[in-house]
Amino acid sequence: MRSKDEEMQQQKLKLERVEKERNELRLNTDRLESRIAELLAELADERGTSESATQLLETETSERLRLEKDLKELQIKFEVLKKQLESQEMEVMEARIMKTSELNGELNDDDDDAAGGMAVWVLA
Question: Which residue stretches, if any, does this entry annotate as coiled coil (predicted)?
């Protein structure tokens, strides 16, 4: 009977050890599951941040491309207007030269009569 009591005592000790190990494993499992949940939450936050950053970058990129296109169009328009301005300035100068020549011609005719046939040049 004594041997049965000893064997039972050993089995109880063994059972206590196994239960203790099982409880420790459950505790570790709970800790690990908690850590996994934290990491999944962080991952979800990072994904959200990443998606927001991606959308912002795509918006900025499309805006930059649109602005570059607008800039090119405006540069072309500027060059066209610049050439038109130069052309108009040339026309104005030519008109002034012609007007000056006409005025000088009229004045010279009057001066020739007044100066007795001598040509007098007047600059306007």
Answer: 1-98
DSSP assignment of 35-56 equals HHHHHHHHHHHHHHHHHHHHHH
Measured CA to CA, the distance from residue 86 to residue 83 in angstroms comes to: 5
**C-alpha span between 64 and 69 (Å, rounded):** 9
Residue whose tokens read 């000790």: 13
Tokens of 11: 């089995």
pLDDT tens per residue across span 47-73: 999 999 999 999 999 999 999 999 999
What CA–CA distance (Å, rounded) separates 106 from 94? Answer: 18
Which residue has 């994904």 as its token pair?
Answer: 47
HSE (side-chain half, CA atoms, 13 Å) at 72: 5
pTM comes to 0.51
Could you give the CA distance from residue 30 to residue 75 in angstroms, rounded to a whole number? 66
∠ CA 78-84-96, rounded to 5°: 140
